[in-house]
UniProtKB/TrEMBL annotation, chain B:
It comes from Thalassorhabdomicrobium marinisediminis. Residues 2-236 form the ABC transporter domain. PANTHER family: OSMOPROTECTANT IMPORT ATP-BINDING PROTEIN OSMV. GO terms for biological process: quaternary ammonium group transport. This is Amino acid ABC transporter ATP-binding protein.
Amino acid sequence: MIQDRVAGTVSPPGVLFAMLGVAALLTPFMTLAANRIVAGEGVMAWAVAAPALVAPGLLAVAAGLLLGVPAGKPWLRLFGSVLGLSGLLWLLMQGAPALLDGEGGYARVSPAIGFWLLLVILSLLLADTLTALAPGPWMRLGFLAVASAVLGVVLWSGALADLSVMQEFSSRRDAFLREALRHLGLAFGSLATATVIGFPLGILCHRRAGLRGAILPVLSFLQTIPSLAMFGLMIPILGWVGDAVPGAQDLGIAGIGFAPAFLALVLYSLLPVVGNTAAGLAAAPPAALEAARGMGMTPLQRLLRVELPLGLPIILTGLRIVLVQNIGLAVIAGLIGGGGFGTFVFQGLNQTATDLILLGALPTVALALAAAIVMDALVDLTRRTPKGTP
Amino acid sequence: MIEIDGITKTYGAMTAVDAVSMTVETGTITVIVGTSGSGKTTLLRMINRLEEPSAGEVRINGEATHSLKPHILRRRIGYAIQGHGLFPHHTVGRNIGAVPELLNWPKDKIRARVDELLELFSMDPDAFRDRYPAELSGGQQQRVGVARALASRPDLLLMDEPFGALDPIIRTRAQEDLRRIQQRLGSTIMLVTHDMEEAIRLGDRVAVMDGGKLVQHGTPAEIIAAPATEFVADMVGDVERPLRLLSLIPAGEVVEEGTANGEALPASASLRDALSACLWTGREAVPIERDGAAAGRVTLAAIRARAEAHG
C-alpha cells in the first residue's frame, strides 16, 4: 500500500536521475591543465570558485534534480531541468576565470566528467518531461528556437570565453566559419542531390515492381559499406575520373577533397530517399486509388492529389534519416580533405588535443539534434488527416 | 440509354465475360447479380474502361465509349465502390467535389453542389462539409461515397457492391435512400451485387450472370415468376419465390371496398407486409389507408390470388 502511494507521487526516472545526479556531483566537475596537450587535474564542483560564487550554481543543480522527482507535474519538472541546466552553466561561467586566475598564459580549463554526466542526466530529465508534455510540432520548434537563442547569447556574450574549447575556437574563428559552411554544404548539398536523383527513382520503383526489385537491393548493398571504406573507395575512383576525363579537375573532381566526400554522402542517402518514396507512395489505401482511377484522374493527378499527399510524412521521414545521418557522416569527410567539422576532429586526434576534437564534435551533435527536431516537426505538420486515420 | 453490344473479356484462355449484350434505359436501375467469379464486376468495369474489353463495344447515348480517352470517359460516369474509397486526407466537401474539380467547375458552383448533395443525403452541410472521412460512421462514409459519384450529374452511375460493407439495418436504409434519390434525380444506375434480395428490392431490371454469360435479363417479377435456368431459380431461392413476388406488389394495387379491424397499412406497403400483418394478428383482412384517409382493405384471399397468378 505504502509502496503504491509512493509510486503514485514520485516519478521513478526522476528518482533515478536525482540519485545519479548526486553521484555525478561527487566526481570532478572541471579540469585545470598547464597547457592544451597535457592531462589536467580534476576540481570538484564546490571548489571551482569562491564559495559565495559556487553556492547559487550548486543550489540550482540540486533543486533542479529534486524538482524532477514528483510525478504528474510535467511543467514543474520542466522548470527543474531548465533550472539545473542553468546551474551547470553558472558553475562553468564562474569556474573558468576563477581557476585560470594566476595560472599563467598556457593554462587551460575544461569541463570534466562531472559536468558531462550532469549535462546528460539533466537533458534526459528534460527529454522525459517533454515526452510527457507531448508538445505539438509548433511548440517543439518554439522550444528549439528558445534553446538556440539562449545558447547563442551565452556563446556570443563571451561568458564562456575562458573555457579551453572556446579558446580553440577564438584562435580559429575564420577556419571554424569556413568549415561550418562546408559541413552544411556537404550535408544539405548531398541531401538535395540525393532527393533530385532518388525521388523520381522512388516514383519509378513504385510504378514498376520489377525496377523496384532491381534497384533497392543495390542501394541496400551500398548502405552496408562501412563509412570509412566508402570514403576510401572514392579516392581511387574519383582520382581516376579526375585524371581521365578532360575538364573534370577544373570542376574540382579529384581523389581527395570535396567531390569524393560529397559523392559518398549522396550514395549513402539514396536508399532512404528511394525506399521511403516508394513506401510512402504505396501507403495510399487501395480503395482510394481505385476510386481515383474510376473517377477519371490521370496517373499524374493520382500521384499529385492522392499518393504524394498521403505519402509525404513517410517521404519526409526518409529525408530526416538522410539529413541526420549525413550531418554525422560528413565528419569523416575531414579525413580525405573534404572539409567540415571533421577537420577539427582529426586535427585534434593527431595532436591529442581533446578540446579541438570537441570543437568539431559539439557543433556536429547540436546540428544533428536541431535537424532531427525540425524534420520531425515537419513530418507532423504534413500529417493533414486527423489522428487515427491511415 | 446505355447499349452493351457483344462485350467480351478474356484473360489468356479464360473467358471472364462472354459476349454480353443488353440495353439499359435512361432513368432506370439495372442490377447485375451473380456469384463471385460470374464476371459481373468485370462487366461493370468494362463500361468505364477500368478493364478494356477484348471484343464488343459499349455506347452511351449512341456514343461509343472507345471513342473517348479513358479518363475523360470516366469523368462522365459516376463510380461508387465497396468500402467507399474516400480520400482520407480530404474533407467531406472536397471528396464530394472531386469530379467537378477535375472538370474545372467554378469554386462557388462546386460548393453549392456539395451542399445540395449533402442535403439530399440527409446530412447537414454545415456539420459535415469540413469533417474528414475518419470522423464519420460507416453509413455516413458510404453516403458520401455515393454523393461523390453523383456530384457531376453523370450520364450513368456504376456501383460495385456499394452496400457490401454495411450492417443489415444500415444497408436497408442505404438502399431506400438510393431508390429515393434515384427517382428524384432520374439517374441511370448499374449496380453489381451478389445479393438477390438487394437486386429485387432495387432493380427496375435484373441481369443475372453465371460463368461470364448473361443468363437472364428482365424485371424482378419476370425473374421470380419464370427463372430461365436452374441457376437463376437457385439464386431466387425456390421456396421464397411467392414471398419475393408479393414483396414487389404494392397493397394499393389489390385494395378493395370494405372495412377490416386493427391497425391500417399505407397503400405503398407491399403485399408481403400485408400478408405478414394478417398472419401475425390472425386477421382475414387488413385496412389500407392512403395519405392518412381510409382507402379500403386487402384480404388474404386477394393476396393468395395474386401469388398464384404468376406466369
